[in-house]
Design a protein that fits this description.
Helix content: 25-40%
CATH superfamily of the domain at 1-85 and 215-253: P-loop containing nucleotide triphosphate hydrolases
Distance between the termini: 40 Å
Domain ABC transporter: 7-251
GO molecular function, one term: ATP binding
CATH topology of the domain at 1-85 and 215-253: Rossmann fold
Strand content: 15-25%
CATH architecture of the domain at 1-85 and 215-253: 3-Layer(aba) Sandwich
Order of helices and strands: EEEHEEHEHHHHEHEHEEH
CATH class of the domain at 1-85 and 215-253: Alpha Beta
Shape: globular
Number of strands: 10
Bound molecules: adenosine-5'-triphosphate
Protein name: Phosphonate ABC transporter ATP-binding protein
Strand order of the largest sheet: 6-7-8-3-9-10
Keywords: ATP-binding, Cell membrane, Membrane, Nucleotide-binding, Phosphonate transport, Translocase, Transport
């Protein structure tokens, strides 16, 4: 599969087992190297959409294609191969706090190993070099031997970014990557994402609560409300008057 980073979401709905509609007939075509920010009130379906894109959970209806290959129906080896191409960072960082930064970053490579190899920490020299490079990309090489728990929130998120880079992905999903971070740290993390988008051409899809931040970083803004897509425009077409409308449509906090 050639890596480009296109995402096609076709008629996707997700109904949770308890009957809650997480997504309601979403259609979205994302080109390679876009920086898409998804905005919406809490409960709008932003996380549900990201988790559907990398198949962290199944959808009820519709199809999602990554570089033309359907992830919604893939299984086994095919699913593992597709997933390598899609990295994700999380609101709570999801690091192993008692492990070193290096070990956390190397774990981003497990999709390329057999389970027993990664359990024993048998990472190749090449991957150790990759970990060094990834940490350099987020300016944290000096933290290589530190325990993850001893880093600040912003640093932990950037270790999350370095770990995600180990997959050598084409698609990078960020689920509320800066919630809880102060404005200065927020800028460092968002700037890291922007750099990867511009320098490596990674397709980025990030869930954010702040419209201001969306305006600063996105090439396209998508608004969700109660599981429905209610707004979708490239940044150049987002008018000041729209701004009010987006607030009214999807809210902000
Ligand atoms: N595992 C689940 N079981 C049942 N309902 C769920 C589950 N996960 C999410 N939901 C519901 O699906 C809807 C969409 O949730 P989702 O987490 O995708 O929203 P969100 O826009 O990411 O919100 P937030 O900004 O608070 O993370 C909400 O009504 C939520 O309560």
């Amino acid at each position: 599969m050639s890596k480009k980073g296109t995402i096609k979401v076709e008629g996707v709905s997700k109904v949770y087992p308890n009957g809650v509609v997480g997504l309601d007939n979403i259609n979205l075509d994302i080109e390679a190297s876009e920086f898409v920010v998804i905005v919406g009130l809490s409960g709008a379906g932003k996380s549900t959409l990201l988790r559907a894109i990398n198949r962290l959970h199944d959808v009820t209806d519709g199809h999602i294609l990554i570089d033309g290959e359907e992830i919604t129906k893939a299984a086994g080896k095919e699913l593992r191969t597709l997933r390598r191409n899609i990295a994700m960072i999380f609101q709570n960082y999801n690091l192993v706090k008692r492990s070193t930064v290096a070990r956390n970053v190397l774990s981003g490579r497990v999709g390329y190993y057999r389970t027993w190899q990664s359990t024993l920490g048998l990472f190749t020299r090449e991957d150790q070099d990759r970990a060094v490079k990834s940490l350099k990309r987020v300016n944290l090489l000096d933290k290589y031997y530190m325990k993850a728990r001893d880093l600040s929130g912003g640093q932990q998120q950037r270790v999350g970014i370095a770990r995600a880079l180990m997959q050598e992905p084409a698609v990078f999903l960020a689920d509320e990557p800066v919630s809880g971070l102060d404005p200065k740290t927020t800028k460092v993390v968002m700037d890291d994402l922007k750099r990867l988008n511009e320098e490596d051409g990674l397709t980025i899809v990030a869930n954010l609560h702040s419209m201001e931040l969306a305006m600063d970083y996105a090439t396209r803004i998508v608004g969700l409300k109660a599981g429905k897509l209610v707004y979708d425009k490239p940044i150049a077409e987002v008018q000041a008057s729209d701004f009010q409308k987006i607030y009214a449509e999807v809210g902000d906090r």
